[in-house]
Specification:
This is MBL fold metallo-hydrolase. InterPro entries: Metallo-B-lactamas, Mito_Persulfide_Diox, POD-like_MBL-fold, Rhodanese-like_dom, Rhodanese-like_dom_sf, RibonucZ/Hydroxyglut_hydro. Residues 16-110 form the Rhodanese domain. Keywords: Hydrolase, Metal-binding. This protein has 382 residues and is of the alpha/beta class. It has two domains: 2-102, Rhodanese-like domain (Oxidized Rhodanese, domain 1, 3-Layer(aba) Sandwich), CATH 3.40.250; 106-374, 4-Layer Sandwich (Metallo-beta-lactamase, Chain A). The protein contains twelve helices and 18 strands. The strands form three sheets. A seven-stranded mixed β-sheet has the order 6-7-8-9-10-11-12. It is globular, with a radius of gyration of 22 Å. The relative contact order is 0.12.
């Protein structure tokens, strides 16, 4: 009998070190672009079934262990599982919803703070490496949400579990790798949605309350200061929380900085890199070493590994440590610009369509289309 498991159950099994063989039945190019850690690729066409060579390959890969099948949406892995069952395998599972469901697996990591009133939760979208935040005041029982993804319930539940209600929603910038949930979340809970003031110049058609450079928003006694840090995008805002934490969006990561050609284009990528250099050296690196960086992404490899950190544990870095360890921060401006504009990594899939949706110029028709646009790693770092 073939059992269906959820993507969350798959994640739990991986994290617990359970012994099974995960077989991805998608075409090779889809698999190579993005897959779950330690998955093996056996492309499967339900119309043709497994030939003897493929069946022997599965047998060798499984080596007596349970088999878990996964594909894009469950369309090919399910008949794959049934065929294995018919051919004598008695411990076969398939992941319901496939990689589409995997792309929506979340973990919530509490972030330690010096201020007892300050509550911070890092909301990790595991398959894409997107990091959003719930930042609030225990005493006021209110929070702001920063960089919400499309699964807005994750942020509402995270706030509620911390005893907080959502009072405002911020985006650091117009995202290029995933569809923002910010406007939808703000509308669902009836609160203001904020972007940086320069977002007007990008033609953002959503209604938003503009934040100017240096503007402070208070949540109870917790102070959130908006800092304009252009480079990755022209409207990028970082949010300094109680002079203790800096939510950097795609400006500064724990292992790199944001790329600059997604908005500015290849021809003007150097201008974006110059802006980013100024933002890093004249704004971020002017802050004390003990400020902790909370980035907007972590790096996920094409084979599903975290380059830094562990799922479910907060990804943070002390600014002073990054100042010493991240070589990009030690370059002069000319070398920095050259590094960022040469040999740029592959762009996020469908980034132009995603930007058009996040500025309100285009709409996404349904859940399936939105998921298809977002499939793949984030690729927002230089």
């Amino acid at each position: 009998m073939v059992e269906k498991i959820t993507a969350e159950q798959l994640a739990d099994g991986i994290d617990a070190g359970e012994q099974f063989t995960l077989i991805d039945t998608r075409p090779e190019d889809s698999f190579e672009a993005w897959h779950v850690r330690n998955a093996e690729n056996v492309p499967y066409d339900p119309r043709e079934g497994l030939d003897e060579g493929q069946f022997e390959e599965v047998k060798e890969l499984a080596d007596g262990r349970p088999v878990v099948g996964i594909c894009g949406k469950g369309i090919t892995s399910t008949p794959f599982g049934f065929e294995l069952d018919e051919r004598g395998y008695d411990d076969v599972s398939v992941v319901a919803g496939g990689m589409e469901a995997w792309s929506k697996v979340y973990e919530v990591a509490p972030v330690e703070t010096e201020n007892d009133d300050l509550v911070v939760r890092q909301v990790q979208r595991r398959a894409k490496g997107c990091l959003g935040y719930v930042v609030g005041s225990r005493e006021a029982e209110e929070a702001v949400v920063v960089d919400a993804t499309r699964q807005t319930d994750q942020f509402k539940v995270t706030a509620a579990d911390a005893g907080l209600t959502v009072a405002r929603v911020f985006d650091t910038h117009v995202h290029a790798d995933h569809i923002s949930g910010g406007p939808a979340l703000a509308e669902e809970v009836g609160v203001p949605y904020h972007l940086g003031e320069p977002a007007h110049d990008r033609g953002v058609e959503y209604e938003f309350d503009a934040l100017s450079d240096g503007e402070v928003v208070e949540v109870g006694d917790v102070r959130v200061e908006a800092l304009h840090t252009p480079g990755h995008t022209s409207e990028m805002m970082n949010y300094l929380v109680d002079d203790e934490l800096l939510l950097t969006g795609d400006t500064l990561f724990v292992d790199s900085v944001g790329r600059t050609e997604l908005q500015f284009g290849e021809a003007d990528a150097s201008r974006g890199a110059e802006l980013l250099y100024e933002s890093l050296h004249e704004t971020i690196l002017e802050l004390p070493d003990d400020v902790r960086i909370l980035p907007g992404h972590l790096t996920i490899t094409s084979d599903g590994r975290y380059e830094n950190g562990t799922p479910g544990e907060p990804l943070t870095a002390r600014l002073g440590d990054l100042r010493e360890e991240l070589d990009l921060l030690g370059l002069d401006e000319a070398a920095f610009v050259e590094r960022l504009t040469e040999n740029a990594p592959e762009k996020p899939p469908n980034y132009e369509s995603v930007i058009a949706i996040n500025t309100g110029r285009e709409t996404v028709e349904d859940e399936s289309e939105a998921t298809e646009l977002e499939l793949g790693p984030n690729n927002c770092a230089a």
